[in-house]
Amino acid sequence: MHPLEGLLELAKLPRSTFYYRQKAASRPDRHAALKEAIKAIFDSHKGRYGYRRVTAQLRRLGRRVTSQDRGCADGTRKEPFLRRPG
């Protein structure tokens, strides 16, 4: 097994960043339910709904959605979440 310091040096990653990411990865995803709802709406319309229509549909279903929530869930800020089929 390699010592952590050597691996961090090889990856050019600060030790504090390593531990921060490790801790963040162990936390549950607070947007998991929203992501599932968005994916269900997106898939049920065969990928033809953009973020505006998905947001409108969520609001019609009684979900409170802000632009910050939508950004985290649809991938405009963090990871890619929804992609058009094809």
Automatic annotation (TrEMBL):
UniProt superkingdom: Bacteria
Region (Disordered) residue spans: 62-86
InterPro entries assigned: HTH-like_dom
Basic and acidic residues bias (residue ranges): 71-86
Domain HTH-like: 33-63
Name the record gives this protein: HTH-like domain-containing protein
Originating species: Mesorhizobium kowhaii
